[in-house]
């Protein structure tokens, strides 16, 4: 310690420690540096840190001697200094050479630290100098059990334990020396700062009075300029004035050391960026970590190294990181960005050698600025860097965006690995306020610092307000009355509006006091570029290039003035282009004018953000139409642009091209697929009036497809298209006029009718015809009268169409239609059809047409009257007596079409008409009116002398007898005249009761009924099967023969009847199946039809039936199956029951010669019970082969 005259006391502080506490060595230096600016110490004491690694003041390490010898030779010994600080944790250090360094007890020194400690203690005990402070870190030492040096590390830890054990008496445990414990570097800072201040206080107060009472030396403040950063974040160069976050810095350093990724999460303005910049980075640099760290140029206000924000060069975060990596590797930033976008994991190839720190500030820009499609890929890049083992990634994240991170799985995993929640400072808030002021030799008026602490409170949002207030307070205090007095006073603080009002007050004063009207008018133009509103309505900063901000000199003036007021910041981006941005987002909430404006235009700003992001995504996907916005989403964009006066960038301007302008090419392409054209037309209708001008142009397109599509859309658009279409009628070409008429036809408004009148006089008949159709479709009195004039048009097609259209106008159109009937035949027929549409009141004119001389008119009138239905019947019936046979015939045809039964009587009378055509027409009509009661009376007409009449009557009777064949069968039984026609009519009947007529006593009736039922096929089977057990043999036989005639369709039912309880049914079914089987042998069987062979198993069972008739029927049936039935017969020959064997013998005999070979085989087997039946059958067959075979077997061929 030295002091002379008016000079302050000079203290030398010796720092001793092993290398495992490099962070603590930095803390000691920092505390020593800070304490000398304490108000009590400043000017009274100066310090000198003595340490081998002291920057600019360490000892040279000679290669020819031990490190400790170099330190001893180049630096004062600990015992020659005023204060010695010893810090130990897990290592004691490197042993000193022995016996060069020998302890008083003759043993070796275990490290240089131990030697320095004992040298200091010996000096203190000998002369009271130096003061020796020993600190021991108590946090756990984490060791890797698999590490190769784990034993050495454990040995070092035991040496430390032994060192502190020697500070106590081994016998009594009494303390022989003192030391303090701490848990983290910040804990050491607190303890050492307190201890150092206490020592300095004692030294100053113990100094000679003359020295102690000297005024402070006139020394320049250690910190030039404001010690408060205002709205900007602290950077590494601000570390000397960064206070109050020591604990958080310790925690962050520890977490970064333990994890490749750490997110500092806190509210906006909570100091996240400052903690990383002035806390973490500064601490790592002071500790000599050797990492490649980001650096900040205070003069140029620019970062270098791996520090960036995701959106600092636009919406491409790959370009942001590439801009930082490229200078480190000499590569091209654009090429690096392109490579990383394709291969995010390739970021590891561009990282600096060794270990590096990547600082991603304002990480929430990943969700506010970055194009959404790039987010997940870029997170892969971050993950690759964090997991590389060569890079530690630290990000700052606003807490209100934390949930967005969890939506990205890789990012959620990274957050699980490392994050540091950052809240508002509480007990250290005073340090944040007072300690920077000390460094700048500033003083707070009594009570002001405490007032500011209270006004700030625990709200993290208040920290940027506090920083800005302190900066403004500094500027108000350092140059008062043209002189520097360093007093921060309460009056200035209150004039600023306090912590909560300083930013807003300053911004409003600058806006109203330093800007003219023109500059103030540029407010919206400027801030719409500086503010971004996300989808949740939160306001965040943008960093536009100055060139993007329109408004000319007034806007530039506003930017310059607000920059000078430190409310805006100007810098340059990675392309060296000037950019501007809000100094801190706190301005958005603190300046009422800006907050109100943001609230008023929030939706517009949000929409601008969304449309810009959507445009970027569209461009990223090759301008794929699937990413374009529809008209409904674009209309608010146009309104937003109008309100904000925004000028969209080229990509966004292209993106917001009106949807209908994009759809028009689809309509103009005549070759486009129909469904695409239809979809485009539907969308144009939905879009509405904005499409009319473009569609009117297409109405005049040479392509009919294009014209028709445009006209269709215009018609669907309605009233907004009328004026344009009328203009086309007056000036367009024939095709365009035709298309315009078609469009007006669709528009159901009164104006459209009136505007079509000129089209009825168009020189082109096609246009006039189209106008007629349009008027008919539109309806109304005006349209009716216009159509009345058109029935006399020079073109027949127009007249015909006009007459036809008038039918839709009801009775009031009758005069016009009657006039048309005097014009020409085509118009007359059209009028007739129109009258038909009018209804009953049109009957009389139609009857006139029916009886007129014009055959075509009669045809059309007849069709119309038929369509009128029963309304016309009373007036048609009398015409059955008309003198004109053609009229009578047409009346029959009309009555048939109407189908009203009330006309049956007159029609029956018409069967006596003199004209065969009328009689045939009457028969046809009787069938159509359903005159079933007239059938008996119609039977006589079956003998009509005219062949066509007879067939017409037969057809009619058949149609009327569909549900009751009784009259026909009665006639057939009575052998009435026209029996062949009765039979023909019967063939057309479908009455299920027809089956019962197989019981008729008349064989002819049974035969005819059987023929009809065979033609029915399968529908007749159920009824026929019911007759099989009938006791009436002829009926039963007829049913069986009919089923045999039906064939395959009857097989399933017949097989079922083989198991019937009625013997008659079983025997009849067997015989029928035999007939079908025999038929099958003679013809090819229909593919897929039920085959009669399916009956063989059932017939086999029937051979054993208790009824002889059934057994005989089964034998007969099997015989008809021929050789197909032989396997069944062989089995039955061996049956235990004699009747069964006998039935089998009969079957074999009836099969005949085809059965002989098999029977001989059976007869040769003496062991089978079938031998005797087989021999019997062979004797009955009696063919030469059978008899010879028996002889060969030694069996007498004939019975004895």
What does this protein look like?
This protein has 1200 residues and is an alpha/beta fold. Among the domains are: 9-212, Rossmann fold; 245-424, Rossmann fold (3-Layer(aba) Sandwich), CATH 3.40.50.300; 497-625; 844-930, Leucine-rich Repeat Variant (Alpha Horseshoe); 1103-1200, no CATH class. 55% of the residues lie in helices and 7% in strands. The strands form 6 sheets. A 5-stranded parallel β-sheet has the order 2-1-3-4-5, sandwiched between helices. Strands 9-10-11-6-12 form a 5-stranded parallel β-sheet, sandwiched between helices. It has a two-stranded antiparallel sheet with strand order 7-8. Helix 25 (592-620) crosses helix 26 (631-644). The N and C termini lie far apart (163 Å). The model is unreliable at 209-218 (pLDDT under 50). InterPro entries: ARM-like, ARM-type_fold, Armadillo, HEAT_type_2, nSTAND1, P-loop_NTPase, PBS_lyase_HEAT. Residues 227-625 form the Novel STAND NTPase domain. GO terms for molecular function: oxidoreductase activity. Pfam families: HEAT_2 (PF13646), nSTAND1 (PF20703).
């Amino acid at each position: 310690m030295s002091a002379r005259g008016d000079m302050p006391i000079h203290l030398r502080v010796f720092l001793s420690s092993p290398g495992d506490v490099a962070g603590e060595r930095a803390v000691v230096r920092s505390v020593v540096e800070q304490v000398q600016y304490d108000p009590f110490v400043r000017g009274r004491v100066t310090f000198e840190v003595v340490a081998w690694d002291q920057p600019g003041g360490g000892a040279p390490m000679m290669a020819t001697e031990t490190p400790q010898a170099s330190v001893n030779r180049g630096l004062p010994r600990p015992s020659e200094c005023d204060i010695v600080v010893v810090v130990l944790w897990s290592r004691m250090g490197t042993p000193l050479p022995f016996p060069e360094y020998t302890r008083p007890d003759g043993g070796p020194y275990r490290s240089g630290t131990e030697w320095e400690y004992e040298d200091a203690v010996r000096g203190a005990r000998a002369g009271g100098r130096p003061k020796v402070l020993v600190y021991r870190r108590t946090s756990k030492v984490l060791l890797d059990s698999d590490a190769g040096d784990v034993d050495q590390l454990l040995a070092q830890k035991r040496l430390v334990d032994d060192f502190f054990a020697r500070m106590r008496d081994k016998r009594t445990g009494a303390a022989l020396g003192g030391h303090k414990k701490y848990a983290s570097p910040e804990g050491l800072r607190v303890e050492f700062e307190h201890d150092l201040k206490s020592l300095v206080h004692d030294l100053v107060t113990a100094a000679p009075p003359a020295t102690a009472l000297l005024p402070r030396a006139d020394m320049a403040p250690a910190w030039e300029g404001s010690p408060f950063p205002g709205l900007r974040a602290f950077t590494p160069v601000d570390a000397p004035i960064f206070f109050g976050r020591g604990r958080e810095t310790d925690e962050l350093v520890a977490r970064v050391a333990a994890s490749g990724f750490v997110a500092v999460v806190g509210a906006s303005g909570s100091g996240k960026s400052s903690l990383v910049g002035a806390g973490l980075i500064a601490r790592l640099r002071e500790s000599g970590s050797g990492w490649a760290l980001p650096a900040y140029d205070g003069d140029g206000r620019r970062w270098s190294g791996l520090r960036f924000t995701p959106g600092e060069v636009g919406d491409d975060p790959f370009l942001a990181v590439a801009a930082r990596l490229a200078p480190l590797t000499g590569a091209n930033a654009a090429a690096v960005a392109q490579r990383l976008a394709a291969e995010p994991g390739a970021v590891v190839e561009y990282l600096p050698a060794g270990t590096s720190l990547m600082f991603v500030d304002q990480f929430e820009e990943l969700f506010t600025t970055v194009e959404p499609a790039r987010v997940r890929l870029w997170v892969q890049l971050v993950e690759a860097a964090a997991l590389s083992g060569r890079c530690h990634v630290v990000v700052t994240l606003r807490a209100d965006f934390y949930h967005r991170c969890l939506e990205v799985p890789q990012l959620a995993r990274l957050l699980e690995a490392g994050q540091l929640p950052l809240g508002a400072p509480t007990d250290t808030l005073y340090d944040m306020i007072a300690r920077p002021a000390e460094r700048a030799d500033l003083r707070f008026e009594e009570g002001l610092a405490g007032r500011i602490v209270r006004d700030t409170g625990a709200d993290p949002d208040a920290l940027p307000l506090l920083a800005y207030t302190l900066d403004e307070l500094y500027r108000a205090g350092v140059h008062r009355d043209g002189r520097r007095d360093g007093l921060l006073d309460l009056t200035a603080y209150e004039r600023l509006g306090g912590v909560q009002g300083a930013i807003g007050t300053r911004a409003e004063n600058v806006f109203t006091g330093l800007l003219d009207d023109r500059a103030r008018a540029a407010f919206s133009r400027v801030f719409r570029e500086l503010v971004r509103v996300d989808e949740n309505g939160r306001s965040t900063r943008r960093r536009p290039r100055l060139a993007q901000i329109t408004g000319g000199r007034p806007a530039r003036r506003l930017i310059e003035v607000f920059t000078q007021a430190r409310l805006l910041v100007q810098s340059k981006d990675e392309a060296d282009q000037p950019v501007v941005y809000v100094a801190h987002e706190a301005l958005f909430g603190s300046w009422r004018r800006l907050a109100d404006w943001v609230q008023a235009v929030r939706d517009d700003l949000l929409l601008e953000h969304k449309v810009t992001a959507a445009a970027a995504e569209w461009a990223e996907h090759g301008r794929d139409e699937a990413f374009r916005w529809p008209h409904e989403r674009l209309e608010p964009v146009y309104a937003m642009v109008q309100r904000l006066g925004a000028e969209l960038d080229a990509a966004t301007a292209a993106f917001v091209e009106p949807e209908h302008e994009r759809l028009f090419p689809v309509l103009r392409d005549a070759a486009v697929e129909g469904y695409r054209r239809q979809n485009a037309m539907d969308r144009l209708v939905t879009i509405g009036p904005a499409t009319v001008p473009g569609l009117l142009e297409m109405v005049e397109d040479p392509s009919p497809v294009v014209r028709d599509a445009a006209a269709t859309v215009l018609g669907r658009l309605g009233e907004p298209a009328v004026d344009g279409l009328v203009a086309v009628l007056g000036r367009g070409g024939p095709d365009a006029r035709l298309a315009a008429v078609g469009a007006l036809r669709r528009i159901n408004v009164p104006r459209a009718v009136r505007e079509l009148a000129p089209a009825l006089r168009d020189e082109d008949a096609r246009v006039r015809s189209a106008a007629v159709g349009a008027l008919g479709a539109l309806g109304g009195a005006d349209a009716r009268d216009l159509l009345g004039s058109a029935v006399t048009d020079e073109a027949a097609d127009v007249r015909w169409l006009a007459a036809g259209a008038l039918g839709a106008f009801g009775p009031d159109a009758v005069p016009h239609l009657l006039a048309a009937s005097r014009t020409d035949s085509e118009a007359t027929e059209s009028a007739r059809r129109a009258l038909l549409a009018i209804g009953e009141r049109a009957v009389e004119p139609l009857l006139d047409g029916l009886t007129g001389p014009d055959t075509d008119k009669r045809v059309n009138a007849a069709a119309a009257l038929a369509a009128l239905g029963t309304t016309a019947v009373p007036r048609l019936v009398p015409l059955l007596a008309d003198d004109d046979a053609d009229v009578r015939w047409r009346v029959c045809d009309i009555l048939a079409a109407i189908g009203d039964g009330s006309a049956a009587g007159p029609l029956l009378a018409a069967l006596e008409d003199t004209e065969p055509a009328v009689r045939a027409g009457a028969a046809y009509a009787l069938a159509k009116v359903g005159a079933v009661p007239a059938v008996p009376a119609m039977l006589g007409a079956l003998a009509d002398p005219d062949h066509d009449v007879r067939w017409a009557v037969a057809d009619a009777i058949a149609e009327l007898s569909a549900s009751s064949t009784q009259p026909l069968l009665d006639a057939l039984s009575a052998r009435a005249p026209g029996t062949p026609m009765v039979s023909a009519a019967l063939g057309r009947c479908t009455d299920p009761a027809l089956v019962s007529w197989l019981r008729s006593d008349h064989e002819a009736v049974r035969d005819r009924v059987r023929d009809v039922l065979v033609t029915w096929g399968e529908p007749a089977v159920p009824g026929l099967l019911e007759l099989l057990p009938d006791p009436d043999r002829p009926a039963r036989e007829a049913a069986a023969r009919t089923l045999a005639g039906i064939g395959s369709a009857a097989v399933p039912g017949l097989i079922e009847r083989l198991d019937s309880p009625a013997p008659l049914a079983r025997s009849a079914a067997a015989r029928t199946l035999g007939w079908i089987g025999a038929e099958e042998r003679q013809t090819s069987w229909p593919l897929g039809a039920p085959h009669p062979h399916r009956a063989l198993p059932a017939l086999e069972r029937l051979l054993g039936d208790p009824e002889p008739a059934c057994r005989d029927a089964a034998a007969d049936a099997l015989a008809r199956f021929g050789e197909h039935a032989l396997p069944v017969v062989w089995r039955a020959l061996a049956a235990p029951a004699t009747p069964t064997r006998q039935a089998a013998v009969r079957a074999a005999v009836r099969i005949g010669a085809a059965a002989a070979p098999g029977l001989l085989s059976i007869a040769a087997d003496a062991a089978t019970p079938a031998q005797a039946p087989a021999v019997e059958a062979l004797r009955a067959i009696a063919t030469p082969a059978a008899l010879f075979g028996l002889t060969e077997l030694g069996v007498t061929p004939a019975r004895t």
